[in-house]
Amino acid sequence: MTSQSQLVRDQHIVPRWHLQRFTDAQGVLWVYKQNLPVKRSRPKGECWERDFYEYAVKGRRTSNRYENWLGRIENDAAPLVERLISREQLGPSDAVVWASYVASLFLRTQKVRDQKSAAMVDETQSPEFIRDLQHEILKDGVLISAGDLRNQVAAFQASIESRSSYYHLAGLENSAAALGEALMKKNWHVLQAPTEKFFVLSDCPVTTVELAPDQQKPGVGFGHALAAIILPLTPQHAFVAAPALAQWKPVVSPRVVDSINQLTVWFAHKRVFAQVTSPEIQSLVNEEINHLVFGQDGFLPSNQNSPCDRHEVQ
After folding, report:
1. From start to end of 196-236, where are the E strands?
2. Pick the residue with more confidence: 48 or 89?
């Protein structure tokens, strides 16, 4: 077992090598936060948290289990970026590696942990939840008062809130495998921005949108038949896994770049990253960062239109 002195404590949520691709020629990463001046930074100082992938249960510790697992995925995926940008078709084993990276990169973020845990708590607070739970228990011949159930549920809520890392990480590997399988069933593309435009990245960098004929909905699940999964790779390139019927031009219009950037900002938790300072991006971050909330209008049916315009997907 790894000794305590060897443990990695400062754990990146978005890998440093991915952030590095969004730096300027001097290695500066420009960080946008809501209603704050754009800040100069470095990839090493962004998207990390102390012991983010660690928890202890009854004296047993994870001891970098998830940090090491995610590190292996990152290291295997990093060399594939240039091959994707060159539009080289990946072999089956490399495709699995890339799908695993995109899936785990979505699941491992602070936003997913915070908002999915909050959604679990919200779900258990409704009167309908207590009533339905009481009815299910009664089917087994046990009658528990609503008051006692509320007390037990309150204790469960406190457990979720105090041990959100456990609930976030316990199913991470299985969830990543399921999302990776969904990605493998889609057609993969790399979109290139026109000369005058650029893609941005965020601290929740993988976004999804349903490419329905009548409207597009952000936050749809990976497995949805019409879901497109998007991950910016560089300021000039973005990876897209989309339904077979969706056709994309290799060099997209400025409008498509703007739409993907808006989706990126909607999904972002607290930070957006770019290789330049831009009043346009700053305004977008001020107005729309974290616009999409998981468990509220993300991964649930929604009537809200996505910024992606279906007429530009061709």
Report:
1. 201-202, 207-211, 216-218, 227-234
2. 89
